[in-house]
Structures are given as C-alpha cells and as structure tokens.
Design a protein that fits this description.
globular
Length: 455
C-alpha cells in the first residue's frame, strides 16, 4: 500500500489547522447574525441583503483562489504562501467585525458587507489547509487516521466557538461581550495556525510538477462540473452546511425565547452536541472501514434526524439537553464523512487528468458553503418577517416560537432527505474506491520516476 511517510507530529500539526478554521468560522457563523440583529439593531432585511450580495463575490473568489493555488509553484509549495497571507487579516477582521463605527442603519449595512467580503477572501486562503489532505494522505487507512484527528479537532474548535462566547456574552443585546470574545478568539486561532503552518503543511515530491497543466480557470471549472460524483457531492455539502448553519444561527434565540435560559446555558447545548460527536468519531471510523463512506454517511444523517424530532415539543432545558446528547452520535458521523468523501472524487479526477486539483475542488466547495449560509439567513429572515419579527423585540409571539422550532428541526430534516436522494445516485462505492487506490499507486510511481528523470 502507498503511504505518505509522515509521522504523528506532522499529522497532528496538520489536523490542528481544522481546529483553527472551525473555531474562527464557528464564532463568525454563529454570532454575526445575532450580533447585528440583536445588539446592533440592524433590520433583518439589511442583514439578508448584505449576505445575498456577498454571494456574488463568493462565486468568483472561492473557486479562483483554489485554482490559483493549483497553478502556484514556490519553494514553500503550492498552498502555504496563500495560508500565510490570509492569516493576519482574518485575525484582525475577527476583532473589528464587532465594533461597527456608526448607528446609521445604511452605513452599518455597508460596513457589514465590506467585512463579509474581506473575511471570505482571507478565510478562503486559510482553508487551503484542507486542500492538502487528499494530496498528503492517499491510502484509505491513513485518511481514516488523519481524518479522525481532523474531526476531533474540528469539533473542539466548534465547541470553543460556542463556549468562549458564552463566557463573555452575558446579554445578547450588549455589544461589549462580542468584542472581547473576538479578541480572545483571534489570539487562540493565531497560535494554533502557527503550529499548522510551521509543522503541518508539507508537499509530496511526486506532485511538485502538478502545477503544470493545460486547464485555464474557465476550462477547469467546466471540467470539474462534468464530474457527476462531484455535482452530487456539492449538493450534499451545501445541504450539510445549511443544516449546521440554521441550527447554530438560531440556537441562541431558541434558548432565550423557548427555553428561557442564559447564553452560556445555550452554548452548553451545542457544546454537548459536538462533544458527543467527538466521542462517536471512533465508531464512525470503524463504520467507514467496514461499510464505506457512502453507507456510513447515510446512517449518520438518519440517526441525527430521528434524534432531533423531540425538539418540536420540548420546552424545558433538561429534556432538550438530553436530546442534544443523543443527536451528537449521528452528528459526529455527518462531520466525519462530509470532508472524507470529497477526497475520493479528487483521486478519480487525478486518474482522469493526471494532475491533482484539490484547490479547484475545495474552492468550489467553499463557495457552496457560503451559498448555504445565504440560504440559512434567507430561511431565518423569511420566517422572522412572516411572523412579524422584522426588527428585534424581546417578547415574540407564539407564531415566532413555532417558527424557531421549524428552523431547528424541520428545515434540516428536509435537507437530510434531499441528501439521502443524492447519496442513492452517488457513484463512489467501497469497491470502486478500492480499484482507484491501486490505479493511483501505479500513477504516483510513474510521477516519481518522471520527476527523478527530470533532475
């Protein structure tokens, strides 16, 4: 079997990048809507418009940065220069996001939009860490090992994104707590990204000439979207992110107005969901090796949806806390599989094109992640507007409370049903992946021989 030859230190340092990404992105995704709607008082229509406009930039930015990284060739590798460039700006944005300089609604809307664009540009550079995963680790066993580390640290990052704000944000309507949280988040993320950049980001020698290929940006995009498996994957990835975002964005208001609990207690709900997800990763790794990622992902989504159904009727904290604990098992599988299955698609693309184009695939996937955020904001906005909550009011009526329950349970359930339909047609079975691994071993051997001959 082909192996990367990397040790535990490199693998753990690489996986630490997942903690950094998801800590800062979780803090952004969970709290930006609540901050600007509840603490700043920006009407929901302005927030929705800012996010929709942001999507236009995402459509260009995410795939373009991925493509440029595929074509980059430096002594530091293809991805590391972009990751380094993106790190400092994103840490600064995580702080200034929480200090809008004006009370004027229109100017605050412009400020939010500009920061959304800047955040996405530099965050996309940082997330090129993920493009290294399929390239560095090519065997099923090594991917399962490193992906387990990644998902544990991803989940820790997301837990931190809920717990840390819960410590500093005592009142959802007070702005000062959000700023203090942003400063602490930036410090932690900066230190952990340094570990990944220094010890985790490597490049395998056999891929050093993969930046030389004939695809233009447009041609590469067209060829990528001709891949049936990838088209199904981006739909599933979009729905996966949508499920997480509608839950994470709504849960602070769900906790306050349905359960009558503090922001910290609300943070604990999501913390236990992700903590149980960490514990379940070892189970899902075994499921992956036995049944394959396709069947494993389906089982995890079904388990999660069934577990969340009681949230439609529960009104007190303890039953809801228990529900989140049970749902964490299926949730852990969803987190484990969604980033694992794209690696198989990239492998298949390499067999067809002769080069690895992780940047293009991950860049397009990130665009769909951002598109999912737009849909989540639009979903929440439409529910709020239809129930008379255009601007924040401390005492919502019964229709709005029902709407919060639907956002937390029913809309994610519809996304899961659509994902299961996609999985039914998904072509990468366990048997096909095994055949691809043997073909890849032969291809990589030839690449090493060509590289040696060119020296």
């Amino acid at each position: 079997m082909e192996s990367s030859g990397f040790g535990k230190k490199q693998k753990l340092s690489f996986a630490t990048g997942s903690f950094s990404q998801w800590f800062i992105n979780g803090a952004f995704n969970v709290w930006v809507f609540t901050f600007y709607f509840t603490a700043v008082g920006l009407p929901v229509s302005y927030i929705m418009l800012a996010f929709v406009m942001w999507t236009v930039w995402n459509a260009i930015n995410d795939p373009l940065i991925g493509y440029l990284s595929d074509r980059t060739h430096t002594r530091w590798g293809r991805r590391k220069p972009f990751i380094i460039i993106g790190t400092i700006p994103i840490l600064i944005i995580e702080i200034i996001l929480w200090i809008p300089p004006t009370d004027n609604h229109f100017l605050t809307f412009i400020y939010l939009f500009i920061l959304l664009v800047c955040y996405d540009t530099f965050y996309t550079m940082v997330t090129l860490i993920d493009t290294c995963f399929p390239e560095l680790y090519t065997t099923v066993e090594e991917r399962a090992e490193v992906n387990t580390m990644k998902q544990v640290l991803t989940t820790l990052g997301i837990i931190m994104a809920f717990i840390v704000p819960g410590i500093f944000i005592e009142d959802l309507t007070e702005q000062s707590g959000y700023l203090l949280n942003g400063i602490v988040t930036s410090i932690i993320v900066g230190l952990t990204l340094l570990i990944t950049i220094k010890w985790g980001i490597k490049e395998r020698t056999e891929f050093k000439q993969d930046h030389i290929h004939g695809f233009s940006f447009i041609e590469g995009m067209k060829y990528t979207f001709k891949n049936k498996g990838y088209l199904l994957y981006v739909v599933m990835f979009f729905l996966h992110e949508y499920m997480i975002l509608v839950l994470a964005t709504t849960i602070p208001l769900y906790g306050k107005h349905i359960l009558n609990i503090s922001p910290f207690e609300t943070s604990l709900l999501l913390a236990v969901l992700f903590f149980v997800a960490i514990l379940s990763v070892a189970i899902w790794m075994k499921v992956d090796l036995k049944l394959g990622s396709r069947k494993g992902y389906a089982l995890s989504m079904i388990a999660y949806f069934i577990a969340t159904l009681p949230l439609l009727i529960f009104t007190t904290y303890l039953p809801v806390l228990i529900t989140f604990i049970v749902a964490g098992v299926g949730f852990g599988g969803m987190l484990y599989f969604i980033w694992l299955i794209v690696a198989d698609i990239i492998d298949d693309d390499e067999l067809k094109t002769g080069v690895r184009r992780e940047g293009t695939f991950i860049g397009i996937s990130l665009f769909f992640m951002r598109l999912a955020m737009i849909l989540s904001i639009v979903t929440i906005s439409l529910v709020f507007v239809s129930t008379g909550w255009e601007e924040y009011a401390p005492n919502p009526d019964a229709d709005l409370l029902l709407g919060l329950r639907l956002i937390v349970v029913v809309f994610p359930g519809l996304a899961i049903i659509a994902s299961l339909i996609c999985l039914y047609f998904y072509p990468y079975t366990k048997e096909k992946i095994a055949e691809m691994k043997e073909q890849m071993r032969e291809l990589h051997t030839k690449k090493k021989e060509r590289l040696a001959a060119s020296k």
